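DM from R.C. (forwarded with permission)

"hey, sorry to bug you on a friday — could you get me a structure for this? deadline for the figure draft is monday and I only need the backbone to look sensible"
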Amino acid sequence: MIFEESIRASSERADSRIVLALDLEEDDPQTLQEKSVKILDDVRRHICALKINRQIVLTLGLGGVSSILKRAHEYSLPTIMDAKLNDVGHTNAFMMRAFIQAGFDAVIASPVTGWEGGMDSVFSLAREHGKGVILLVYMSNPGAEQFYSTTVKGPTPRPIFENFADLSIQWGAEAIVVGATRPEILRRVRQIVGPKMIILSPGIGAQGGDARKAIEAGATYLIVGRSIYKSSSPSQAAQAINDAVKSV
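My reply, with the result:
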């Protein structure tokens, strides 16, 4: 459980629950690289991990992203690739190997493909290389309810997200993602996975999620992007979020 240990240690050092989401959208690779590094340098003392989305990977390539990951590791910040892996096993394995070689410490994956011939290759590679797998349980966008809250038929009918929460335990995920925009879902998932599972919650600020309410509902860490990197002072914006949840 290397990723779990590293993010908890980082959180304690920085007294922070923020995972910075570097989701910048720039067409020019050099501009994107410079902006990403500048923001990371500015907020590094106020965050506990770094998450990179596919926008940056598509613009910079994994080679360009590796330099950002190296910078984060110099600050002892664990790094997450928000890949939402959800393909067949051999394709998942190819992508997982590429992310591992680039230097990511954990990868976000979707459980929709199931275990055999789907997620089995992701978890196998993660364990082989000492990396973490973070399962997507419930997204933060308004339309997420159409899928994640759909009731699954069976001996005990229940929402899909509850099954995903169970799978995160069965498969040995180190963390899960549950949107901060649905505190009631967060509470239910926390009941299912217990007190020790790390829950990462995106959707703070720009999508309407409230940092304090998310922590109170069961989130361990907050994934925050636009509310920080679009601020005139990213470091102050990050510190304000930390201050808002310190007493929770």
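R.C.: lifesaver. Strands lie at 18-22, 49-52, 79-85, 106-109, 132-138, 151-152, 158-159, 175-178, 198-201, 221-224.
me: no worries. Residues 54-74 form the longest helix (21 residues).
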